[in-house]
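Quality-control log, excerpt.
Job 1 of 2 completed; input and output follow.
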Amino acid sequence: MTTADATSQVTAQGSASGSSFYAAMRILPREQRDAMFQIYSFCRQVDDIADSNDPRAERLAALDQWRRDIDALYAGNPPARVTDYVPSVKQFGLRREDFIAIIDGMEMDVPADIRAPDAATLDLYCDRVASAVGRLSVRVFGLGEDDGILLAHHLGRALQLTNILRDIDEDAGLGRLYLPREELNAAGIMSNDPLVVVSDPRLPRVCEVILKQARSHFAKSNDIMARNSRRVVRAPKIMSEYYHAIFEKLVERGFALPRKPVKLNKAAKIFILIRYAFI
């Protein structure tokens, strides 16, 4: 590893150290770990662009530059910030279209904040910002093609729907609302104003539908992991268990006002890590 590569890896690891996925990444062998830190760093950088307070035109331009950099990477002329991706792309067969899908997903929030998308748009968003990350990750983990794609599909959606449910109030404060329009309307909520929706007493009815969808995706992803080598699925299993614990806390808390923030404490994370990484 060159000095530049080492510096890049330290930066990627530092940016990941506060995330729920950090422990799951750390248990991997070095080459897999380095690839996962690169994937995480990429996601973090494009997400930071989408969520910044910069003018929308500047954010669109910055995301488009990332597209050009990824294209150059796969054309054999990688710019400096993606040079260290080259070994991982070659070793694990990481696909250009998955990197591009992630950029496209982050961009969905930029021209205008997402507010009550239709169900198809929400599913596309989940595929791009979560399942596409999974499609890169399962190649690093070493899952077979068919089960890898299925796991990325179901686990990505389970995690993203859990994120949406956990962050309803935080997202509303940013002017965003990811709950599907069809379910809001079915509950009698016709507004797409995030602050109005999160204050509506009918909101729990909408959240119950999303909880049911997320639960189904968790169950299907567990079935896929159960039929694969425990060694290969250790990292995604830890990620799944972290988020499933948050999911169950959301179920227990409910969605009626007042809603206290839900998060997993350090002891719970350590328990999950020990249970699924070492026992």
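Job 2 of 2 completed; input and output follow.
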Amino acid sequence: MTGRLKYTCSIAMGPIDQLVEIAKTAEEVGFDSIALPDSLFFMEKAAADYPYTPDGSRMWNEDTPWVDPLIAAGAMGAVTTKLRFYTNVLKLGSRNPLLLARQVGSVANLTNNRFGFGVGIGWAPEEFEWCGVPYKRRGARVDEMIDVIKLVLAGGMVEFHGEFFDFDRLQMSPAPSEPVPFYVGGHTDVALRRAARIGDGWTSAMMTGDQLAETITKLNELRAEYGRADQPFEFQAVCIDKFGVDGHRRLAEIGVTDNIVIPWVFDGLGFDAPLDKKQDSLKRFADTYIHSGWQDK
């Protein structure tokens, strides 16, 4: 183990009126971050399979609650002082990079640089087409979007002339006082190469420990290939088979730096469990893993 394993609480698919209090409790008990998922809408009929379940089915339905992750980060950031937030992951493909740059910069400033931008492409053709964006060539489009957002967030008067986006000199003020970290999601070879090439970290969907170990090895090889092996890099993981102190120790050993968890689900509660039960789960998890001292042994 080369560093302290961080702990992030995911607030996926939970009632949105609980989020502010969950953030306050997560900070009080010692969590490092909140992971903010993204879903634009539920289409009654999906043209593509969901890529992160064995049978392609979605794990939610039309009544599952979602909140815009950037708005949630602003609301939760207002009631905390140390807790960090990152999108996990925001689907870039269906959105506009200049509008996103304005939003991301605002959240970074309002939270005093406690925001990380987790990005992905998006899997559903409907999210692209119904938002007025072509589904074809989405990967190349997203690569250019990342270039645009990073350029604008760096501050100053900038211009961009690319294949998909083109604008003359402009400036968004204030720029964040520190660079916003970009965390790249995805399991495909193209996604891993994108993370190794331009990311400050990589974030997984649900994976086994063995799959994570293999992927982290691959990412480290790619980072070396791109001459970035010595740069700081986060490995944010959602692991489905490594539990207990021994399981968490194993995650740290294979290179995971940030363990994304949902404590109330581990306690057998549903996503819609009452707030007080979720707060109890957060405290119990923190006592067991964050404050137990296992990382010092």
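Post-run check on job 2. The radius of gyration is 19 Å.
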